[in-house]
Specification:
single chain, mainly alpha, two-stranded antiparallel sheet, about 5% strand, globular
Length: about 130
């Protein structure tokens, strides 16, 4: 498990796949059959990507683009789904966000989610203009 996390944080694609495969027997032994099944299917899909999209795999293998490195230091990569979740949760909890000062009804949620792509684009443009990333 630690080697899998290290491979992910360092952007080691081959290590990521290898250690994911090595965890499958442990998933079975601990009764987590869905994890074992999903990991096996994930591995098959990622190996298929190597033949269908070699340009993507090249970026994954040589540049570690399957993780996001916010700090620029080595071995500090973060999983892409975690970055998305952190960014979304930060915007939801900010002033004027979804959880501050409003009840969360279906209509409020729909309006907030519908406006999120535009808000993210605006925030990204401002960050790029200012030369900072939050």
């Amino acid at each position: 498990m630690k080697k899998f996390i290290t491979a992910d944080r360092c952007g080691d694609w081959n290590g990521h796949l290898f250690y994911a495969q090595q965890m499958i027997p442990f998933f079975h032994a601990s009764g987590h059959f869905q994890y074992a099944k999903c990991t096996h299917l994930y591995e098959q899909d990622m190996l298929a990507v190597a033949t269908s999209h070699p340009d993507v795999i090249e970026k994954f293998v040589e540049k570690g683009y399957f993780t996001i490195n916010r700090s620029g230091s080595s071995c500090a990569g973060v999983w892409s789904d975690m970055v998305i979740e952190q960014t979304l949760m930060r915007s939801m909890k900010s002033s004027g966000g979804l959880t501050r000062g409003r009840g969360v009804s279906d209509s409020v949620l729909a309006k907030w989610v519908g406006g999120s792509p535009a808000a993210i684009a605006i925030c990204s443009s401002i960050e790029e203009f200012a030369g900072t990333v939050f």
